[in-house]
Amino acid sequence: xxxxxxxxxxxxxxxxxxxxxxxxxxxxxxxxxxxxxxxxxxxxxxxxxxxxxxxxxxxxxxxxxxxxxxxxxxxxxxxxxxxxxxxxxxxxxxxxxxxxxxxxxxxxxxxxxxxxxxxxxxxxxxxxxxxxxxxxxxxxxxxxxxxxxxxxxxxxxxxxxxxxxxxxxxxxxxxxxxxxxxxxxxxxxxxxxxxxxxxxxxxxxxxxxxxxxxxxxxxxxxxxxxxxxxxxxxxxxxxxxxxxxxxxxxxxxxxxxxxxxxxxxxxxxxxxxxxxxxxxxxxxxxxxxx
Amino acid sequence: xxxxxxxxxxxxxxxxxxxxxxxxxxxxxxxxxxxxxxxxxxxxxxxxxxxxxxxxxxxxxxxxxxxxxxxxxxxxxxxxxxxxxxxxxxxxxxxxxxxxxxxxxxxxxxxxxxxxxxxxxxxxxxxxxxxxxxxxxxxxxxxxxxxxxxxxxxxxxxxxxxxxxxxxxxxxxxxxxxxxxxxxxxxxxxxxxxxxxxxxxxxxxxxxxxxxxxxxxxxxxxxxxxxxxxxxxxxxxxxxxxxxxxxxxxxxxxxxxxxxxxxxxxxxxxxxxxxxxxxxxxxxxxxxxxxxxxxxxxx
Lengths: 290, 299
Known about the structure:
The complex is a heterodimer of chains A (290) and B (299).
Chain A: E1 19-28, E2 35-45, E3 50-54, H1 61-69, E4 76-81, E5 84-85, E6 93-96, H2 108-119, H3 124-137, H4 153-165, E7 171-175, H5 185-200, E8 204-208, H6 211-217, E9 220-224, E10 231-236, H7 251-272, H8 275-288
Parallel strand pairs in A: 3-8, 3-9, 6-7, 7-8
Antiparallel strand pairs in A: 1-2, 1-4, 4-5, 9-10
Chain B: H1 2-10, H2 24-35, H3 39-60, H4 72-79, H5 93-126, H6 128-141, H7 146-156, H8 161-185, H9 189-197, H10 202-239, H11 245-254, H12 258-286, H13 288-296
Helix pairs in contact in B: 4-12, 5-6, 5-8, 5-10, 5-11, 7-8, 8-10, 9-10, 10-11, 10-12, 11-12
């Protein structure tokens, strides 16, 4: 399957939908202590694409997630999902959170079946069957009756993926989902998630602060500026799918990485506001002392 | 060949009969394990040491200021005697009447306080509006000591029973409500968000996030509340009562019979301990997820 072969019809079964952010702005604080977090932000997520948002820490990535998820509303501009304005949270946009948000008082199985059962989407037997299928798929077949606290970090993320996918969202929003995983399970989760994504290519907005993770997973990188967040660069990742780890060693990946890191470094320096330079000078003075 | 190897790998390698024991088997297993460790012996030694010091002070040496206090042997012989010197033992029906009356009052007060306190606490924690309406009044009344309510309770309620129950309920209610409210406020925002994007209505959020999320705090509150119910009950029984352990303690003191006084105190200790153990047991039963989460942290 090539990247171009995206069907034009958009529905829940395929999960291929278009997201457009048009001049979105959001600031916080009272008039006299106002801070613009997102300013005139515009970009588009194509149907069936995995778009990674990368930016220096504190640049407003989580605010963007909240806006697209509908937990927060932009002060100006609009966010469109398949041409329709987003007005609040809904099951068409599932968020996989930074920290696990599985309900600790429900078993893994109940967590996964929770959404559809609550909304009464179909017969309970069908929901149960689908929950069993998804849990097997994410490799948690033997852990259905366990509580989230009894799962490892990687298992919790997979359970959360299952809980999101059972709702057949139009857009899957992942807010630094693999942060906090150890060095062993992180690449495993990335690969696992890639296989899951490449299977049906549900439109995905993936937020991360790791540039390598972003290149490995994404079709496009949206690199954000320092706060207030604006699009600094959009980089297409020309790697074929299915993605393999060895592709990360190609010269074009190095070139993309170099380019992206240069922009990110540039933006990160702005957030220090020149204080790094002053600090370095101070160090020079101290070292110059006898 | 490879299939066989795979099967033997997947087979359970634990010895036969090592399945988790259930019910009474589990109790036996735990007891066996516990008596294999030094903990129960140290505990017995500790209790023995205290009793010995108590005996030494009151009975063996009869030091000044201690000579009027009944020693452990005096108490135990009277407590277990069919014809007690000072009128109260496990053979006198009055003793059970006192226990029964106090337990009944606690049960009514505790259930009443829980039925009122948990819903109010949930609403106060969940809705800013409810909190704003009730919290200032709640916080003004809460620090008033239960003893200060005694005259008002006697004026408000007729008879022996209702003022005593009112006082125990009041103390218990404050503890339950406050803990429940804090429980709701302690729930992580991300669970509300997750419930929101999964399509929960307000009602669903209440039943699937607010109530289970506050549960650990609620049960901490209930344990505190049953404790304060006991001590305010005894205080109330001392002022207004015809039966009950508090009444037994005070009337024994008034009649200068010190042994029943101490028997009353010790009985209170045991009954109080037992009642909070029941609350703890129910809590653990209702919150398997919490018990398991604590177990994962090695607690």
